[in-house]
Amino acid sequence: MINRTKSKNRLDKLFSPNSIAVVGASRDEKSVGYGIAKNLIEGCVFKCRYCMPFKGKIYLVNPKAGMILAKKCYHDISSIKEQIDLVIIAVPAAIVETIVRECAKLKVGGIIIISAGFAEIGEEGKNLQERIVSIASKSGIPIVGPNCLGIIRPSAGMNASFAPSVPPRGDVAFISQSGALADSIIDWAIESVYGFSAIISIGNQADLDISDFIEWLGEDKETKAIALYIEGIKDGRRFMEVTSRISRKKPIIVLKAGRTEKGQKAISSHTGSIAGSYKIYETAFSQSGVEIADNVEELFDLAKALANQPPCKKNSVAIVTNAGGPGVLCADFCESMGVNLAELKDSTIRKLDKSGKMHPAYSRHNPLDIVGDALPERYEAAINILLSEDYISGLIVIQTLQTMTDPVEDAKIIIRAKKRFKDKPIICTYMGGMFSREGWELLEKNGIPDYNDPKKAARAMKALIDKGKRGLK
Fold first, then answer.
1. How confident is the model over 167-189, as pLDDT tens digits?
2. Are 300 and 326 found together in one domain?
3. Count of domains in the chain?
4. Are 189 and 237 in a shared domain?
5. Which residues constitute the domain of residue 20?
6. 338 and 193 assigned to the same domain
């Protein structure tokens, strides 16, 4: 294994290489080797507005091809006479050991092994995997994988993977033990305009494991929150030490697979990991300050709130809504999750009355129902008055779409409130679809999370209360 005390800096070549070699580049458009080559040369296979070609040097290695995608091919990696920062290997497992030996002689900066057929298939594959790690570690070369998708760094225009496309640039890092799950998340992120600072597929964790990447991301200026999909952890003690330390400065959210006996059996055939009791993992996460998500959707819902909103310093929250039903639902969800709804003081009610903006039938209690015909100025008065109260530490804003509702102007009011009340989190629930889209997109672009379900908003606020308890900024 590599020297863990130096691993943080050694991972830099994996995320910001100046040169990349693809061993196993192919002319077959349906192959992994072709996909990786095209991703580097053109940015992605499935085109979207976020695709950017890799700006560094690209070397393609295939002894049977002269040119691929209009780039010269090398017979082997040793034929490349310049320094190589990163090598991506996509050849049959039986050949990988030979390639790694060549990489060790050349002292490359890092290796990503895409190839499968290692510890996940049994004892023979496990032995091969251990030999490869031993060869690389003697030369100080970190390995990602094997049996992984690769790494994507949107800000650097680096799609060092066989994912078909790339997501927008953002501030959430995603570490996944499933490459296929990461693929699907990328597709969803493009449509949802959900940004990532990095997407890392760790595969079998033969060398670098999830703790190494959490540690590196903990120092990464682009990353504000770390989302994890985990099947098994190699070194539980180190994981707890690293997450306990990093979670004090950056939120970490985890989705753990293998909660049932059948799920644990499936894990062992997927990545060769030993899943272990979910209760043990749950306790370890809790003790390490890691937020636990129940499903994929919640994983990224919580990540965007924790990345972009300040902590809720006290468990004392208010709800503003233009519809009674969603407000009641949100109140129920808040109570069930331990989110305390503040009792509105008489002095607060008087301020609302004196604003001259409230409907005669507004609720005068929390949730604050400002009635369905609420125009932007009524939202503005309610939001600013509630956030100006010291005893209210966070706000959930619900909007349902009526004929007079103005989603964009309401969003602008919320954005101004965020700038004015910087130390209080605001979570939004724009309930609706196409006619609300422009409004919620504006919110999201300004770092204000929006959810189409009051339950999600309550869960996000609960995470921000937990963030406050941990002393995070």
1. 999 999 999 999 999 999 999 99
2. no
3. 2
4. yes
5. 4-305
6. no
Q: Residues 291-308: pLDDT tens digits?
A: 999 999 999 999 999 999
3-state secondary structure the chain: CCCHHHHHHHCHHHHCCCEEEEECCCCCCCCHHHHHHHHHHHCCCCCCCCCCCCCCEEEEECCCCCEECCEEEECCHHHCCCCCCEEEECCCHHHHHHHHHHHHHHCCCEEEECCCCCHHHCHHHHHHHHHHHHHHHHCCCCEECCCCCEEEEHHHCEEEECCCCCCCEEEEEEEECCHHHHHHHHHHHHHHCCCEEEEEECCCCCCCCHHHHHHHHHCCCCCCEEEEEECCCCCHHHHHHHHHHHCCCCCEEEEECCCCHHHHHHHHHHCCCCCCCHHHHHHHHHHCCCEECCCHHHHHHHHHHHHHCCCCCCCCEEEEECCHHHHHHHHHHHHHHCCCECCCCHHHHHHHHHCCCCCCCCCCCCCEECCCCCCHHHHHHHHHHHHCCCCCCEEEEEEECCCCCCHHHHHHHHHHHHHHCCCCCEEEEEECCCCCHHHHHHHHHCCCCECCCHHHHHHHHHHHHHHHHCCCC
Q: Any residues with CB less than 8 A from the CB of 194 and at least 6 apart, and which?
A: 167, 168, 170, 172, 188, 300, 304
Give 201-245 pLDDT, tens digit per residue.
Answer: 999 999 999 999 999 999 999 999 999 999 988 899 999 999 999
Last residue of a domain, one of 305, 321, 346: 305
Q: Give me the amino acid identity at 262.
A: K
Q: Which two tokens stand for residue 329?
A: 């639902």
Residues 300 and 378 in one domain: no
Shared-domain flag, residues 196 and 55: yes
Looking at the fold, whether 198 and 125 belong to one and the same domain comes out as yes
Looking up residue 114, the CATH number of its domain turns out to be: 3.40.50.261
pLDDT of amino acid 278? 80
In the structure encoding, which two tokens stand for residue 195, read together? 């940004």
At residue 455, φ and ψ (nearest 5 deg) are -65, -40
Q: How many CB atoms lie within 10 A of CB 466?
A: 19
Count of CB atoms situated within 10 Å of the CB of 137: 16
* Angstrom distances, CA of residue 325 to CA of 234, 298, 371, 405, 409: 47, 23, 11, 17, 23
Residue type (1 letter), 356 = G
One domain, residues 48 and 143: yes
Judgement on whether residues 352 and 282 belong to the same structural domain of the protein: no
Record the tokens describing residue 161, joined without a space.
């993977």
How far apart are alpha carbons 10 and 273 in whole angstroms? 25
pTM of the predicted model, to two decimals?
A: 0.93
- Give the distance from CA 195 to its chain's centroid: 8
Lookup result for tokens 């209360």: 465
